[in-house]
Write a structure and sequence with these properties.
about 240 residues; mainly alpha; Arc Repressor Mutant, subunit A; 11 helices
Length: about 240
């Protein structure tokens, strides 16, 4: 890899500092209140100078979203790698707990990813945020369906899917969930909804009545989820 010039290194440093300052602001006031002027002021620079690195709010939001998705995926991979091969703790459960841990440790950044859509923001089509989400879905796909063949996944026992839905799922791009047969995509989305729903409830304080038992409830639910999904996939 060619060495970066001094100008390129300075630009990379300034870009990183702007993103970090924006993350601090989101942690303090929430994603909806993100202000380029306030970010610039925190760094001792003018907003016009900030525009040299991020021409508008959407560009900064795209960088923040991409970094949040990548940091979340890094946390999941680290959790799975650190767990080793414990037969009593499925890798899907480990990944799900890594997801929950990151979300509860970074509630504002999780809200940026999965909270109320930011008014006026539209992610670039097939841009860096799309690539980052695909990375995470690929990891979950691996720990959910690892060891099963495509033929097994295609024969999974799911409620009947309508012809239009099957056609839509079959037409998804090959990069991402489009590599799975339609029944497996349906199972994946069901599993994702159950896992993500529990995390959202906890992050937004709706399961606080469980106190210190939220982690145990989550693990039990993830084990049940995995058993349910795998029961629907026929043996080889």
């Amino acid at each position: 890899m060619p060495q970066l010039s001094l100008r390129e290194r300075r630009r990379a440093t300034a870009t990183r500092e702007i993103v970090e300052a924006a993350e601090h602001q989101i942690a303090e006031v929430g994603p909806a209140a993100l202000s380029l002027r306030a970010v610039a002021r925190a760094l001792g620079m003018t907003v016009q100078a900030l525009y040299h690195y991020f021409p508008n709010r959407d560009a900064l939001l795209t960088a923040l979203l991409t970094k949040a998705y990548d940091d979340l995926a890094d946390a999941l991979e680290a959790a799975v790698d650190a767990a080793g091969d414990d037969p009593d703790l499925p890798r899907l459960v480990i990944a799900a707990e890594g997801y929950r841990s990151w979300a509860t440790s970074h509630p504002e950044r999780f809200q940026l990813l999965y909270g109320t859509p930011l008014r006026g923001y539209e992610a670039p089509a097939d841009g860096p945020t799309t690539q980052a989400t695909r990375r995470m879905s690929t990891l979950f796909e691996r720990v959910l369906f690892g060891g099963f063949t495509r033929a097994q996944l295609a024969a999974a026992d799911t409620p009947p899917l309508s012809a239009p839905l099957r056609a839509h799922l079959a037409g998804l791009p090959p990069s991402g969930l489009g590599e799975l047969p339609p029944p497996a995509i349906a199972l994946f989305m069901s599993a994702w909804g159950r896992m993500h729903g529990l995390v959202v409830l906890e992050v937004f304080g709706h399961t606080s009545f469980l106190g210190d038992h939220q982690a145990e409830i989550f693990r039990v639910s993830m084990r049940d989820l995995l058993d349910d999904i795998h029961r629907r996939i026929p043996a080889a």
